[in-house]
Amino acid sequence: MIKEVLIVILIPFLTAVLFSNTLIAEFLTDYRFSSEYIENNTKTEMIVYNKGGFQASDVLISFMTNNTAQITYSNCPEGEISLSSNHDEPIMLDIPRMTPRHLCIYHFDDVLEIQDIHITSDDRMTVWKDGKSSYNPLVSEITLIGLFVVYGVLMLYVIRLPWKGFENWMWLKISYNKFIASKNNEKICEFVKIEYKTKINDKDAGIIEAIFYGKDTLRQILAHTILPNMYVKQRLCQLEEKDLIDMDPITLDDTLKKFLDSHLDMDEKEKKEFSK
Prior knowledge:
This protein is an alpha+beta fold. It has three domains: 2-21 and 140-174; 30-123, Immunoglobulin-like, CATH 2.60.40; 176-275, Arc Repressor Mutant, subunit A (Orthogonal Bundle). The chain contains nine helices and eleven strands. The chain has helices at 2-18, 21-27, 137-175, 185-196, 202-212, 218-225, 229-241, 254-263, 268-275; strands spanning 31-38, 43-50, 56-64, 71-75, 80-82, 91-98, 104-108, 115-120, 128-129, 245-247, 250-252. The strands form three sheets. The chain has a five-stranded antiparallel sheet with strand order 5-6-3-8-9, with no helix packed on it. A four-stranded antiparallel sheet has the order 1-2-7-4, with no helix packed on it. A two-stranded antiparallel ribbon has the order 10-11. Strand 10 (245-247) and strand 11 form a beta hairpin. The longest helix has 39 residues, at 137-175. 20% of the residues are buried. The model has no long low-confidence stretch (mean pLDDT 80).
């Protein structure tokens, strides 16, 4: 039961994470911002680009300078820069999309000290500041691959559950008329409900009764309950989880066995059938 609850929680969570724009913006995009003096230290060259693996959307870059300056060269077809006439106000660079490793290069006609760099983009939860980034391509890729593998395994498990349920339902329908509930069915179900605080069905009771009368292999239980193989395997696992039986070897819990010893009602004909 705990396993099913965890799967129900994990699948929506992983779906939201793995297929969200936030994942791409936060972990698969990153930025590189640099500046240097050129032409005998008379001008400043600024370079900014997305060094991540995915395209970033609506990138907004702001930075402060110690002076005002004009742009003498611009190579950034994906965005526009807005200069400030007051160096106390930030210079803004607005880029609707930033293709990975596509450089935006600007030359300013003065020596500028560039500082207080902030970069944000759509769906990004954190602000990129002054080159400080926790982005590591290898770690990000390994983490994502691991998450997708876990997601894939969980999805396969979930897809398999309905098929198993359908398969059991189909076989139960085929064998339904062959299965005859024991007259001890109600006694066993009621005792389990009271003593173990759990519910079982008439087929579980039939399996328990077969084990009580010495049917301690899967083949024997199948023969005496006339239930499908997959169904019995599944129910045996469920009964073990409910502490009603042990699987290695197949035996009843002591409390349940003692109850059956003193309360099970079977006539001589039925005993002979079980002893075969």
